Amino acid sequence: xxxxxxxxxxxxxxxxxxxxxxxxxxxxxxxxxxxxxxxxxxxxxxxxxxxxxxxxxxxxxxxxxxxxxxxxxxxxxxxxxxxxxxxxxxxxxxxxxxxxxxxxxxxxxxxxxxxxxxxxxxxxxxxxxxxxxxxxxxxxxxxxxxxxxxxxxxxxxxxxxxxxxxxxxxxxxxxxxxxxxxxxxxxxxxxxxxxxxxxxxxxxxxxxxxxxxxxxxxxxxxxxx
Length: 225
Description:
The chain crosses the membrane at residues 123-143, 150-168, 200-221. This is Zinc metallopeptidase. The chain has helices at 2-29, 40-50, 80-83, 88-106, 109-137, 139-142, 146-182, 191-223; strands spanning 57-61, 68-70, 75-79. By secondary structure, it is mainly alpha-helical. The chain has one domain (2-223). It starts with a helix and ends with a helix.
């Protein structure tokens, strides 16, 4: 119990704080329109055109901060508030996703590594809960800690995926900042709002990795008792 409190509880609190930070930061800057009045969809399109990308579809999707780039289908999906919005937050998020499209075009190695791990990480994420809870109630999983050992492998896969995700996300944000300024979509005095939004979003990936790593270390310690 002491190890759980030492490793898991602080990292869970870190994750909750990171989610609160990105939500509050986004909500602050989504109320500040860009002087250019360019929407997120227009900003993403401009960034990709400037990089010579013309084969990626920009689509509007439902949800809050559900924005993502799908390299398998070359689709850039923006939530309605960012697709239609012209705030500093909206263009920042949109340009960030366009940054992933640029990574895809130039063959950014970390993105390629993350793409190669997508399948096995998805399987690990689905197997993990069954192994953890099944080891408590199913004798064949509890014997010799089989369930826990499989869970450790799953956590290791997920941790590797999240670790590789960090440079992918921070590089996309860097590309977004540069492109928005170079294209005149935001002025230099407007960049801080974009940077704060993207930094807050980026920290959620750091928190997720730290939490997964803490779980991995915890269950490794449990398996050795």
